[in-house]
DNA sequence: GATAATTCCTAGTAATACGATATGGAATAG
DNA sequence: CTATTCCATATCGTATTACTAGGAATTATC
């Protein structure tokens, strides 16, 4: 079973299509044809993307959606949080519940994921390249030199 | 919503209890009392732990479960994979499906999580301390010095 | 204006996963 | 003989998720 929601995966596909046709807006109908999903479903997924101003919409004939920013300025973390919620390993507010066992542990691991994904951009996703990451990222995990061109 | 299953969290609680009473085996009944869960439920959770030889069982009177290894030699990753399945962001076998968008991306992120959790031990979890991690871990993410005693 | 293309919004339904419980008994060992 | 693990299955409730549906609002074009 995948740990990622379908909505995130399709959301990424949507954004990829929008990124490829920078110039003109893409209608939901076109997206539906290209991605093999229903228009209504894609509409729903576009809603949060628009509210977060990741995409901009144009109504009326020849309307559609386009990216609000260049793909290299859209972090995977943003998309992930929009489409499948925050990266939380335990969501008790106090971080002191029995389930927490070790709050510091979960927080560290959450930060690990977040920092990593904050440095991956839509451009990286599209080009199928491993992401460009700095050698070190704050106090959190980083990709290090790995012979893959980073 | 938490991204971790309850079974993992309770699994960790079980292992913590076992770790604290190293010397003698702990029966399911005792676990049930201590953790406030039904015996049958805990039995179910203990099954995969035993099959993976993380815990050893003794039958008959005064029987019960104990850890097969010291807590410092049980990686969080093992527990996680046993209790809530592998860390997979896309589970198509080919890694070439439409949902993949960027197989290299998911693989890198999966490796990030896995490597991080592979270096966290049950001992870390129990002591509520941030994990001890080497300054660098292969080609994957690491925790770096962060003033928390690592 | 009228019309048609499109986004926008709100609900609702259907399928699935998951947590949790329940039952019943076989095997094992003090 | 009794306490316990072991194992299988199945069931139920609920939360989440995927997906559908209908129609209001907006805008370009004729």
How is this structure best described in words?
Two copies of one chain form a homodimer. The first copy, chain A, has a domain at 6-67: Orthogonal Bundle (Arc Repressor Mutant, subunit A). Chain A has helices at 6-20, 28-35, 39-51, 76-84, 103-118, 122-126, and strands spanning 55-58, 64-67. The radius of gyration of chain A is 18 Å and the shape is elongated. Chain A has a two-stranded antiparallel sheet. Chain A is mainly alpha-helical. Residues 130-150 of chain A have low confidence and may be disordered. At the A-B interface, helix 1, helix 5 and helix 6 of A face helix 1, helix 5 and helix 6 of B.
Write a brief structural summary.
2 copies of one chain form a homodimer. With 150 residues, chain A is mainly alpha-helical.
What are the defining features of this structure?
homodimer; 150 residues; mainly alpha; Arc Repressor Mutant, subunit A; two-stranded antiparallel ribbon; 6 helices; 5% strand; disordered C terminus; DNA-binding
């Amino acid at each position: 079973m995948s740990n990622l929601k379908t909505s995130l995966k399709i959301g990424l596909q949507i954004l990829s299509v929008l990124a490829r046709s920078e110039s003109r807006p893409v209608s939901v109908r076109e997206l539906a044809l290209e991605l093999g999903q229903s228009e209504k479903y894609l509409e729903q997924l576009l809603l949060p993307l628009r509210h977060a101003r990741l995409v901009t919409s144009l109504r009326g004939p020849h309307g559609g959606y386009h990216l609000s920013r260049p793909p290299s300025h859209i972090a995977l973390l943003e998309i992930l949080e929009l489409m499948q919620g925050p990266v939380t390993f335990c969501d008790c507010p106090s971080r002191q519940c029995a389930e927490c066992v070790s709050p510091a542990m979960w927080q560290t691991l959450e930060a690990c994921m977040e920092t990593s994904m904050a440095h991956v951009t839509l451009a990286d996703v599209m080009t199928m390249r491993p992401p460009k990451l700095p050698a070190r990222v704050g106090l959190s995990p980083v990709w290090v030199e790995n012979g893959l061109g980073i």
